[in-house]
Amino acid sequence: MSTLLQPEQRVLSTLEADGSRRWLTPKLSKGRFWQWRRVVAYLLIAIYALAPFVTINGRPAILLDLISRQFTILGVTFLPTDSVLLSLLLVLVAVTIFAATALAGRVWCGWACPQTVYMEFVFRPLERLFTGRTGKGGPPAAVAAWRTIAFYASSLIVCWHLANMFLAYFVGAHRLHAWIWSAAPWEHPGPFAVVLFLTALMMFDFCYWREQLCIIGCPYGRFQSVMLDRNSAIIGYDEARGEPRGKGREREAAGLGDCIDCNQCVVVCPTGIDIRAGLQMECIGCAQCIDACDAVMDKINRPRGLVRYSSQAAMAKEPVRLLRPRVVLYTGLMALLLVAMGVVIVSQRAFDVVPLRGLGLPFTLTATGDVENVIRLRIVNRTDAPATYSLAGVSPATLRITSVQANISAGPRETVMEPVHLVIPQADFGPGVLDVVLRVTNQTADSRDIPFRMLGPTSLKPRLPQ
Ligand code: SF4
Ligand code: SF4
Asked: What's the whole-model pTM score?
């Protein structure tokens, strides 16, 4: 075989030299970090499963209702007019992730990411249960066909359930429950197609793609190199203590370090890397290598922590700084965003009004020669009770409102769109435009003044209505 295109070493931990996929079946190390991760993972799975059923103040804990464009998070409903608040919330989440990564490294990936949680604590255990596969560093052993079928069948059930749970976040658990038990799938083809698609996607991810999502698919994983610094918490191998590595009992006499080169930290790694090669993009911070190495250290009567949570600075015996410019910057930004969100929430009113231009002619002239604009008034009732709204002209004094309805009604948290006719004598009009103010008042006498620019004739020979 030609050696021209042979790499000197493995390019990717999951790629064989010939370019084929190197399947990983990591061994499980049930150390103290795994025990804690398992507690966290089951807690998160329980939260994920129960959140759509839980209500806070009579509203769902989480409901992302795309159809009516209302997002309820922890019992607080964000309406379409809350785009500023939602944007601030999203930026806050992003900055919080940046701050957490700068301080604690990939703690999200290893401890809380749904990919890791479900892969390591649901699908991998299922695979081990049915196929008995646990890696020893080589290719996965062949198993009886029924075992493989049992694994895929059980995975399919779990994925189907997860897809339904996911849909519950968007349509509500009770509505989904009613759909499942009292309607045929073809009566709700859209949601049913979403469940089918998500099930297929999860089967692909958890049964085939697996660690590839973390290594090449996740944008957060790609960002790590710029979000971490030498003081960020990482999982690292203490080279000064471990090297030179090697097997043998008379270690001190032979000048060997604490690493016995047993490869246990490698065979447990879900991304197939060797932590002893230093900090790598593929490391998801799952701490399996710590648990594996601690078990080895216990066996050879050496102190634990050859592989441990540390930082690049600490490993290099440099002073560790908790407060760094990026941490201060992120913290300051988070405080600013929280203040901005507080200001937006405090300044919220019982209803929002947005005046929009009509869809027909920009203006018409009435039989008496007045200028008329038909506009659309979008009113958002932000309260949990039905509301009625009345309209009046504020300025100029000659502004008249000739709407079809005297009062506009809106249900709880409902958004209504009403056509409104604004009429004003042509004599009061400037060339082409006139700024007017309308007043919208609800049944509790809470009112809002809404400025609007009316359009009118620019010459003395206006266009007459058809
Ligand atoms: S588990 Fe520990 S002792 Fe074994 S190879 Fe890894 S670092 Fe060395
Ligand atoms: S190197 Fe260690 S912490 Fe990183 S992914 Fe592998 S086992 Fe997990």
From this structure: 0.80
Domains defined along the chain, listed by start: 12-50+105-317 (no CATH), 351-455 (2.60.40.10)
Say which range, 119-128, 160-169, 312-321, 457-466, has the weakest mean pLDDT.
Answer: 457-466
Q: At a CB cut-off of 8 Å and minimum separation 6, what does 237 contact?
A: 259, 265, 275, 276, 278, 306, 307
Question: Beta partners for 418?
Answer: 377
How many angstroms is it from 432 CA to the middle of ligand 2? 69
Q: Is the dihedral of CA 26, 30, 36, 41 positive or negative?
A: positive
Q: Which two tokens stand for residue 2?
A: 């030609």
Q: Is the pLDDT of residue 30 over 90?
A: yes
| Number of the ligand 2 atom closest to the C-alpha atom of 285 | 3
Tens of pLDDT, residue by residue over 221-249, are 887 778 888 999 999 999 999 999 988 77
Q: How remote is the CA of residue 261 from the centroid of ligand 1, in Å?
A: 5
376 Cβ contact partners less than 8 Å away, ≥ 6 residues apart: 355, 356, 357, 358, 359, 417, 418, 419, 420
Q: Is the CB of 271 under 6 A from ligand 2?
A: yes
Distance CA 393, CA 405 (A): 15
Is the sign of the CA dihedral 311, 313, 317, 321 positive or negative? Answer: negative
Give the separation between CA 9 and CA 353, rounded to whole angstroms.
64
Burial of 443 (0-12, 13-18, 19+ CB in 10 A): middle
Q: From the CA of 268, which ligand is nearest?
A: 2
Q: Where do the DSSP E strands lie in 4-105? A: 55-56, 59-60, 62-65, 70-73, 76-78
**Nearest bound ligand to the CA of residue 289:** 2
Give the tens place of pLDDT for each residue, 51-80.
988 988 777 888 888 877 778 888 777 777
> What amino acid is encoded at 50 in this protein?
L
For the Cβ of 89 lying below 6 angstroms from any atom of ligand 2, the answer is: no
